[in-house]
Fold GlxA family transcriptional regulator.
Amino acid sequence: MRRVVFLLVPGVHLLDLAGPAQVFFGANDLGLPYELSYVAEVPDVPSAQGTSLRADTELPELTPDDLVLVPGWRAPRLKGTGPLGAAALDWLRAHPGTVASVCAGADALGRAGLLDGRRCTTHHDLQDELADRYPAATVVRDVLYVVDGRVVTSAGIASGIDLALHLVATRHGPAAAARIARTMVVYARRNGGDQQASALLRHRSHVDDTVHRLQDLVEARFVERLTLADLARAAGCSERTVTRLFTRATGITPLRYQQLLRVERAEHLIGHGATVEGAARAVGFEDGRMLRRLRAR
């Protein structure tokens, strides 16, 4: 049996904790034994979402086979947040096995000296400050998680699920991780190098309802031959108006948006073993030539 010890700090984000915990809990159902435990400097740890969590206050002795994971906490900034005393940081530093973090939890690893000379990541809102606080570390920006030896760091909130699935896949194989992801109704197990913000999110920060409806249509049918005339009929306006509204709201044309969705999905398929040709046809391209050109762009 392998232990997974979660080190909790006041203000912990529930999903930072619950996502990875559910992955390892699900592994038990597959006959992959994991013992989950929760430690903190206080017995009742308030979460950012308002509920309190019970934790042991005695830091356990660890073996190289154990995993210590620090979930993130509410942190508009890192400085002055996530209080951890010297004993907890010394315990982290002395652990001979794998240490992982989600979101702001990377700051705890930094204070323990575990990021020095290593590659790491965190939530995109905290990347600059993490780099400033730990200049001996190399912060890899806008990725889901980074593995550098025994130190594994991930981006914000839901990326902890991706991190935990990766650790299961590394130890037990990708099929086991895929079964857990299916049980959790996770749409797809993402790779560490995937971007934190998908194309869907990057171009949705506007308030134009018409364009949001058009984006819904493109996203539902991005593998099809969707013409500007199709979008115009759906919006009840001219093709010229569609292009003007879409470009003003998102900064790109409808065609470019469809291409981004296709490329992003193709990248995911390639990362999971598909050939460029196979991925290109799966997302609606006739062959791999256009996909190669768009990837190079």
